[in-house]
Amino acid sequence: MIKLDGLPLALSTAGAYLEHVTTSFAEYLQLYEASWLKLQRTSPGLNSYEDRSLYTTWQVTFDRIREQNTASAQLLTLWAYFDKQDVWFGLLRHAYDTDDERIQKLTEDQLNFNEAVRLLCEYGLAHPEPSLGQRFGSAGYSVHSCVHSWAVSVLNDRWDDGLARVALTCVASEVPSTDVDKWWLLQRRLLQHAARHEHSIANGTVDTTQMEWALYNLGNLYACQGKFAEAEAMYIRALQGEEEVLGRKHISTLETVNNLGNLYSDQGKLVEAEAMYIRALQGFEEALGPKHISTLYTVNNLGILNADQGKLVEAEAMYIRALQGKEEALGPKHISTLDTVNNLGNLYADQGKLVKAEAMYIRALQGFEEALGLKHISTLHTVNNLGILYADQGKLAEAEAMYIRALQGFEEALGPKHILTLETVNNLGNLYANQGKLVEAEAIYIRALQGCEETLGPKHISTLYTVNNLGILYTNQGKLVEAEAMCIRALQGKEEALGRKHISTLYTVNNLGILYADQGKLVEAEAIYIRALQGKEEALGPKHISTLNTVNNLGALYADQGKLAEAEAMYIRALQGYEEALGPKLLPSYLLALNTMLSFGDLLSRMGRKDTAKIMYTRALAGYTAVQGPSSKWCQSLKDRLQALQVKSAEPKEGQAKPKEIGARESLKHMFRKLRRRLDTG
After folding, report:
1. pTM of the model
2. Domain coordinates of the chain in residue numbers?
3. How far, CA to CA in Å, does 332 sit from each of 14, 372, 381, 482?
């Protein structure tokens, strides 16, 4: 048809119209011309001939559809306030309470919706998406982007605040809670529709009066999907409305305060998070009592925050209060109870109480698997945490199995760029680095870093964790320039976001000390280690494993400086601390302790105390054999060292060559450099 200028979309729509209507080409052209003239009068801004041709064709079809079923016409008009893709009955059913009779008819039941959307599909204005039914359990329908633009600018030539509020109600009402089966899939499905409302809410185009609940739900949606900036904007708008309408101490207001605290905590804004949690806790205790579930939720969240701040004693008190309260109110196997069990496992791991931590994680994992299934997000959280614990215990094969299970689950549930997926990618990078798989580790870290920068921004705490860990890797690879750039970036970012005394900041301080030591900047390294040690002693205590790691590093530095007595004191303190924290049975399987034994053996051998050095080497060899197998390079190197101790040391005669052991020891020193100093991840 010449009038349609060969435009495929226009021809397709015209063909669908003629297929379903007993009219001639001549009659169709008369309708087309009348709609063309009407479009010129009502939309003079449409200068494109192609747009006019398309829009005129669709208008002819739309008029016919409206004659046959007003619900179909109303569906296409309402569609302008949703995304062009994936509209389904379950999304629209929340609009039934509106006063609009046409929308009531459309959303009364599935049959009415099916009839309305069927007519749009028959006339070529919409099409089904069968793949969505396979993925989400309910099929969706989409319209072409050009048809959607026409619905926005022509069918809705004026903004209809009523329809906008109906669409916002639909999207917000469909946001699931995290205790619903496969909640994350439905949340991801809703994101594109929520994005349609985000701009209109921000600029005040849609009236959100008495719709604070909808803003709160959208805040939950964005927070769970790792979109923190969008979540913060929604929560703040919801809170402002609730304070104005309901008051500062209303339960709904306090729930938003609590969730805003969660969001600030996830963003690393710990001061702001603490203020929100304390306000929420005081409000809940006053309104509901100290043992109410809402009160206990905030107690648990405050425990998480205290742990993030390095206030481990306060965190433990909060967790135990929350756990006891939830066990009494909900039972020991309730999901919320298990959440606190998992959190208490995190705390014990941070305190170096690894046996207690493992018991908590296993209890939580068994409970989650029984209640929620193997692939639920809460289950995968604990799987990931158990992987971290196994890595800390030196059970590297078990750790890798846990990380891979968690990663596959998160990728399937949340996608490859979600924050939980990226955190597990980062953890797998840590494991490969500890296994000496440095090429694989670098690839994993770069994936995590690119994902975090894209999703969260370059200064987000999770991004900085990966920057820190990539700095560690470059240190181990001998790429000291790249390592220094990463460490300084991580340190500056953490100091800005968390403060100079935060545990995560101190981790990076420790790592920068390692880098300076490897660069031969021993004075700078000593100053950095002392800062890290003093900070950790203050925040974690003198016997925390992370504190002991820096003690070990300071011992290695003193050995490099020739301060042998000071080095010996540090190694002894580190070993005694590890044994006290882990227990004598677990100590031989703990890699950090084995590494200290090896380094201490080197020091003793250097000091001429070969019998004591032999004891240290033997203990380390037994441990490495149990953890990594007798054929590992570490075991072989220790056997070589033990054999070297058996050779009687004697000064060579004049003109006689020096023993080859001296050259060999230099290469071994390089080989074990990464083991002599303790790197902090996170």
Report:
1. 0.69
2. 2-159, 510-645+662-676
3. 64, 15, 19, 49
